[in-house]
Amino acid sequence: MAASLRLYNTLTRSKDVFVPIDPENVRLYVCGPTVYDYAHIGNARPIIVFDLLFRLLRRVYGKEAVTYVRNITDVDDKINARAARDYPDLPHNEAIRVVTGKTEEQFHADIRALGVLMPEDVNEAGKLPRFVEPRATEHIDEMRTIIGRLIDRGAAYVAEGHVLFSVAAMQKLPNVPQYGAFSKRSPDELLSGARVDVAPYKRDPMDFVLWKPSGPQDPAWPSPAGIATPGRPGWHIECSAMSWKHLVEAFETRLACADPTAREIFDIHGGGIDLVFPHHENEIAQSCCAFDTPRMANVWMHNGFLQVEGEKMSKSLGNFFTINELLQDWPGEVLRFNMLRTHYRQPIDWTIKGLEESEKILDRWYELAGRGEAVFLSEQIIDALADDLNTPKMLAELHALDGQGAHEELGANLRALGFLLEGAEAWEARKWASLSIDPAQVEALIGARKEARAAKNWAESDRIRDELAALNVVVKDNKDGTTTWEVAR
Ligand SMILES: Nc1ncnc2c1ncn2[C@@H]1O[C@H](COP(=O)(O)OP(=O)(O)OP(=O)(O)O)[C@@H](O)[C@H]1O
Ligand SMILES: [Zn+2]
């Protein structure tokens, strides 16, 4: 029998026992990146956290019994602006394709180095894909279908080439939630937020865009609802469309037989805490109205912010490090480990000191545990993760394995958790290479220094010490007569 999972649910604001709609197909959707620039290490947090959840679900319910959808947002005004800036000489659509294609490729290379499972690691030929990474631009038809349903049900209206979602009309439909209930915002709060930027074509300041007209410089598709001019989707609609397409529609027939009330609902929806409002509130509004259901997903999980000096790391504040630049100084596994030392709902302060500590622990574990091949999660590790992904507890259990000398088991767990990606030898070689240090050369110099000291040749011994210092190596003569060395950062 599967271990019982408990997950904190933003919908209920409590940690609840997780009950899948269909234990043979547990379904997870996570909002992915907008691809116009290098992802920063804050963007990596949901990727790593939900990778861990995916691994856990696969372990608990079976590899064939979990479907994971993580989308790529490749239509957005920030992408258009970047394309116009960087490729002014290309036709605009081509420029957009270059920007999104390059950024997506870079994103994949970056997160692969973080030990994150990729679709090609999971999907098997001839079987249902269990990990889908859909692009928004490949789901415009589904978006149009949902927008059409919303107009038909009276929850959306057309104005000046736009389609807008009507919050007031939503509230007149039966069987749908209260708008604002998910993010716990009162009508007054919603209204004062919406008044900041009121467009003239909106009937009500709270209404939000499902579809908008495209200018000559924008990517454009045929519009829904008989709007003659071409347009492009708003932000929120893409996730309603992609989750429906890949998590609900594909399994509708089977679910309809098993549990008719489960139609249009999937199990877990994830993302960063900043997405609770408006993005997830609006996804829920769209999906519930279009599909006549009180819920879009049963469990909503949100990771806390990765912060720098108390502030959210973000592109707009400019206080960010890209994954790519961090990977030049640190192995990806150190970044992954450092991320998991903090529980996913807590803020993380990202510091060099934290990275150094993480690297030290991994150095020790890789040396002791790195030679085997076994891959499995021990019961106590599963138990820790089953408690709302308690990664600090998980790390304490890994430390306990180390303390007990159970190093093969430690290695097996590390491998199952996305560590020891290339084996211990490769880890060491890469680490030394990234520090521009050749350990054999250091050992030889230390040997020569020892001989010089034995011969009381202090000038030579000092010269060698300076040579080592120039290599960034600090030599320590211990009381017991041994000499050790470490790298100064
Ligand atoms: N500092 C952060 N800590 C944790 N998660 C974050 C952080 N910044 C963004 N995210 C998450 O990263 C994911 C990708 O978001 P997206 O590509 O829209 O980035 P973004 O919000 O534009 O980044 P920024 O805030 O820097 O502009 C989302 O789930 C978002 O919640
Ligand atoms: Zn989304």
TrEMBL record:
UniProt EC number: 6.1.1.16
The reaction(s) this protein catalyses: tRNA(Cys) + L-cysteine + ATP = L-cysteinyl-tRNA(Cys) + AMP + diphosphate
Motif 'HIGH' region mapped to chain: 33-43
Pfam family of the protein (one): tRNA-synt_1e
Annotated binding of ATP, by residue: K315
EC supergroup of this enzyme: ligase
Protein encoded by which gene: cysS
The keyword Glycosyltransferase appears for this protein: no
Domain of life where this protein originates: Bacteria
Domain Cysteinyl-tRNA ligase anticodon binding stretches: 439-481
Residue ranges of the motif 'KMSKS' region: 312-316
Domain tRNA synthetases class I catalytic residue range list: 18-358
Subunit composition and interactions: Monomer.
Compartments, record wording: Cytoplasm
GO molecular function, one term: zinc ion binding
Entry GO terms, CC: cytosol
Cofactor(s) recorded in Swiss-Prot or TrEMBL: Zn(2+)
Binding site for Zn(2+): C31, C239, H279, E283
Name recorded for this polypeptide: Cysteine--tRNA ligase
Cofactor binding note of this UniProt entry: Binds 1 zinc ion per subunit.
Residue stretches spanning the membrane: none
Listed GO biological process terms: cysteinyl-tRNA aminoacylation
Predominant cellular place of this UniProt entry's protein: cytoplasm
Membership in a protein family: Belongs to the class-I aminoacyl-tRNA synthetase family.
Organism: Microvirga tunisiensis
UniProt entry keywords in alphabetical sequence: Aminoacyl-tRNA synthetase, ATP-binding, Cytoplasm, Ligase, Metal-binding, Nucleotide-binding, Protein biosynthesis, Zinc
